[in-house]
Amino acid sequence: MRHLFIADLHLQPERPELFRAFRYFLDDIARPGDALYMLGDIFEYWIGDDAPLPGLEPIFQRVRALSDAGSRIYFQHGNRDFLVGSALMVQLGAELLPEAQRIELPTGAALIMHGDQLCTDDSAYQQFRTQVRNPEWQQSFLSQPIEQREAIARQMRQQSQQQGAMKAEAIMDVNADAVRNTMLAHRVELLIHGHTHRPNIHQNQIGSGQGERIVLGDWSESGWYLRVDESGRELIRFTPE
């Protein structure tokens, strides 16, 4: 079985090239029987399963077809789509995973997550993350009319963009101690995540010669995925034909 990992597509109606890249991935790269892990920020924003972004239905149908053909589909929340719920999982034939999940791969155990929880130097973001991951806050938000939720989401996106432009690059990257402590706590020597938009393979994350961290890339006209199978691991960039 192949294990495929993607993150940070940020699907949104304003960017049709993202839809095109994901359709190509689902039609020409993913195969029945694969395990597909979507590690957050698949959507640019998500205000509830009752209000999906326009234009996503063909994507949903392709993911469901892959699931019906024997693939296992998994989803983790990102910092943009943390309100994805069980109704969408039923529609996709997918399973919602906890924000940090230890899995077994052909190459050994691994820990998967979106990765924003590792950016501990950004204290303002971590406070925001704690707020919006609170079940009471989420219930209050989801109880509001769709129009009001859309307005709040637009405001939050604008604030995020403004704040991100003012922050140092290092603050928005993962913290080395957070990475090491997380890997040790979960007893893994492989960590797979997205969020930072800095695709790379990092060694020595726990100590000298110990610990590998694979960062998934964000999508544009091209896409990124990690493939893991019996032959090993490969971080791949592709461009739709």
UniProtKB/TrEMBL annotation:
Reactions it catalyzes: UDP-2-N,3-O-bis[(3R)-3-hydroxytetradecanoyl]-alpha-D-glucosamine + H2O = 2-N,3-O-bis[(3R)-3-hydroxytetradecanoyl]-alpha-D-glucosaminyl 1-phosphate + UMP + 2 H(+)
Q: Which residues bind Mn(2+) 2?
A: 41, 79, 114, 195
What does this protein need as cofactor? Mn(2+)
Lineage of the species this protein comes from: Bacteria, Pseudomonadati, Pseudomonadota, Gammaproteobacteria, Oceanospirillales
Q: Which residues form the Calcineurin-like phosphoesterase domain?
A: 1-199
- Species annotation: Marinobacterium zhoushanense
This protein is called: UDP-2,3-diacylglucosamine hydrolase
The record's function comment reads:
Hydrolyzes the pyrophosphate bond of UDP-2,3-diacylglucosamine to yield 2,3-diacylglucosamine 1-phosphate (lipid X) and UMP by catalyzing the attack of water at the alpha-P atom. Involved in the biosynthesis of lipid A, a phosphorylated glycolipid that anchors the lipopolysaccharide to the outer membrane of the cell.
Q: What is its EC number?
A: 3.6.1.54
